[in-house]
């Protein structure tokens, strides 16, 4: 068999080849048409035009908020007007060295704000100046001045310092924190991280009011919660409303992992009575029972013993009001005027609602029994 004869054989089958090719071509065309027709039914026609046009904002909607002009920036105005009344406060203490001697060095810093320009009074937190041997106040105009401690109160975490050079000082305007509304915009001003970031401005809103923290000092108040950034060094600085009025003293932040935007401030209306006492007397007076409470008495410990939560009395002052009322060491105080007490800090919070000389009903747990006694509160002075 030659290649020629083989070629003749293939050429003799040419008509069958063309017919096969024609059938395949027609089948492919028909298959494509069918496939195109079936795709929408299988996968859905995502490009199908709507049968009717959708119109949004139908019915009642929230009102449009109108701002006055395009150059009215309240935060910028607050920073400009209130910022000069905000100060930095440095805490200096002595620490011995291997070679002895050595003067006071800065161990911490915070913020404060001028509340009386004529007399140079500045409000801040107690924990900002606690233990200070020397206090230096940094003003907005660049002056660094020594300050003296007028008075401090660890029970409310408040303090007042004073500078003697009152030239060109300007005081903050104080507002009314009792009128705050959740959602109201606020501005925090302070020195986070020290003088390098002096008078930093952050903004936010009132997230909540009447918050209680189990922190010494702050537990005495129903605190303001805000999402305005409050960082180390902001303590003692003002929380300001959009009228430029101080409505709180920035004091604490939730630093637990996973929490952001949870800062707390002492309401200015609640702080002022203590601040005024510190200026007038050099100390603050608070109502007390003249008992010593053991903070180790926790809810877990109470549960293990089958006892109620409360404040555990570890010692009684001889001749004090609690002893006269029949309260003993080992008692658990569970209520003040029928308001539940779950810890030593809650006891302080409840007592601070009253004044020295007021009589309150104290509910006491003892020997698996509950009794009520009346106690006349006495004056306790800040140290």
Explain what the structure shows.
- The chain has 383 residues and is α+β, with helices and mostly antiparallel strands.
- The protein folds into 3 domains: 76 residues, Trypsin-like serine proteases (Thrombin, subunit H); 109 residues, Trypsin-like serine proteases (Thrombin, subunit H, Beta Barrel); 97 residues, PDZ domain (Pdz3 Domain), CATH 2.30.42.
- Helices cover 23% and strands 33% of the residues.
- The strands form 4 sheets. It has a 6-stranded antiparallel barrel. The protein has a 6-stranded antiparallel beta barrel with strand order 8-9-10-13-12-11.
- A hairpin with a 4-residue loop joins β2 and β3.
- The chain is globular.
- The N and C termini lie far apart (124 Å).
- The N terminus is likely disordered.
């Amino acid at each position: 068999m030659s290649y020629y004869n083989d070629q003749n054989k293939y050429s003799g089958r040419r008509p069958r080849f063309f017919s096969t090719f024609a059938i395949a071509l027609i089948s492919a065309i028909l298959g494509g048409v069918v496939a195109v027709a079936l795709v929408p039914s299988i996968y859905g026609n995502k490009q199908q035009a709507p049968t009717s046009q959708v119109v949004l904002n139908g019915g009642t909607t929230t009102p449009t908020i109108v701002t006055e002009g395009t150059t009215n920036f309240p935060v910028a105005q607050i920073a400009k007007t209130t910022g000069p009344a905000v100060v930095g406060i440095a805490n200096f203490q002595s620490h011995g060295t291997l070679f002895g001697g050595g003067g006071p060095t800065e161990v911490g810093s915070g913020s404060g704000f001028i509340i009386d320009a004529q007399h140079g009074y500045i409000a801040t937190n107690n924990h900002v100046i606690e233990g200070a041997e020397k206090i230096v106040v940094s003003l907005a105009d660049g002056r660094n001045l020594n300050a003296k401690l007028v008075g401090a109160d660890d029970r409310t975490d408040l303090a007042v310092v004073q500078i003697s050079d009152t030239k060109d000082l300007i005081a903050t305007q104080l507002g009314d924190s009792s009128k705050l509304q959740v959602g109201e915009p606020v501005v925090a001003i302070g020195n986070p991280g020290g003088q390098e970031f002096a008078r930093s401005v952050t903004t936010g809103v009132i997230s909540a009011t009447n918050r209680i923290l189990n922190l010494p000092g702050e537990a005495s108040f129903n605190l303001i919660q805000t999402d305005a950034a409050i960082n180390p060094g902001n303590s003692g600085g003002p929380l300001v409303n959009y009228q430029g009025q101080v409505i709180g003293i920035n004091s604490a932040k939730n630093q637990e992992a996973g929490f952001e935007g949870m800062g707390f401030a002492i309401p200015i209306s609640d702080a002022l009575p203590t601040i005024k006492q510190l200026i007038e007397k050099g100390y603050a007076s608070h109502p007390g029972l003249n008992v010593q409470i053991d903070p180790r008495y926790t809810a877990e410990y109470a549960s293990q013993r089958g006892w109620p939560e409360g404040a555990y009395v570890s010692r009684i002052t001889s001749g004090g009001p609690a002893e006269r009322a029949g309260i003993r060491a080992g008692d658990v105080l569970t209520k003040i005027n029928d308001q539940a007490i779950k810890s030593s800090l809650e006891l302080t919070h409840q007592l601070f609602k009253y004044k020295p000389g007021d009589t309150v009903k104290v509910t006491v747990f003892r020997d698996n029994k509950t009794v009520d006694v009346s106690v006349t509160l006495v004056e306790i002075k800040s140290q």
